[in-house]
Amino acid sequence: MAFLINDLILADESGIRLKMEPPGSTDIKITNQSWRILALLVQEQGRTVSREILFKSIWEDFGLISSNSSLTQYVSLLRKAFNHLGLDEDLIITVPKVGFMVNPDISIIYVDDRPDTENNIDDEEYNPDHEIQIPKFKTVPENSQDDHEYYIKPPTMKVFGWILLSILLIASAIGAVLTSRLLINERISAHPIYLHLIDGCSIYSFKQLSEGEKQDYLAKINIFIKEKSLQCGKDTAILMYINDEPLVSGHRYSRTQTLYSVCDARGDSAKTCSNYIFSSEGKEL
Fold first, then answer.
1. 92, part of any domain
2. pLDDT in tens, 157-187
3. 3-state secondary structure string across 217-262
4. CA–CA dist 129, 33 (Å, integer)
5. Residue 50 belongs to domain spanning
6. Which are the contacts of 35, defined by CB distance < 8 A and separation ≥ 6?
7. Which of 73, 93, 117 is the last residue before a domain boundary?
8. What is the separation, in whole angstroms, between the first and last Cα of the chain?
9. Distances (CA, A) of 20 to 7, 85, 142, 224
10. Residue 94: what are its φ and ψ, rounded to 5°?
């Protein structure tokens, strides 16, 4: 199932993209929950869909736990994605204290699924909840005369701005609190900071770390690489995002959550990042 929205944007379960652009050039991947929300609201275009129906159809019927914050987050991500692709009008309208509806004034046509078989992913293990597309990295030799290993040269601020935005969208799925804290954290940088090379993996952080923090996180990443049996090459980078801000403003209580994004950019086309989120107890979320 796929939709053509305002004769401008194509949307299906793999993501949304501009109709007139080549497949893969403007694609924004969306999660399973985001797609189910969009599909249900489009099917009921012009009619309000209550939060209770959305909770049951999107989460509970799939054995998942629903919440108002999760629903609000996914709707917000969909709105941002469509606005980014040039849809000026609000596609999804909030009906206060009731639910949501798709704007009846926006043209939506059911179309055949995308014909671009080259970009369709048939791997049964592919999980759109854990992958985002990124631009290709370039590699340069490490400035060392003692070895011939390679590290990932940090791309431009613009490129990493897109990566940061994309991974923040993925990270927001675990809750509005984590996302908001990441965005206001003064130690978050738009430039990736190269930390070290571990088993061929170039490690970067978007947060300034003390030497003690750096060694602590490198030890954790070393364990993570071994547990996941990662095979790193010269085009592999692990981007690390850390949130350790207080969960409640004015209180000292906090819970650190860390996001590892393992990115591979071999070949001539953009690859994907696999994302892993861990709680302060080291449990994968």
1. yes
2. 444 554 555 555 555 544 443 433 444 344 4
3. HHHHHHHHHHHCCCCCCCCEEEEEEEECCECCCCCCCECCEEEEEE
4. 9
5. 2-117
6. 12, 13
7. 117
8. 30
9. 9, 11, 41, 41
10. -85, 130
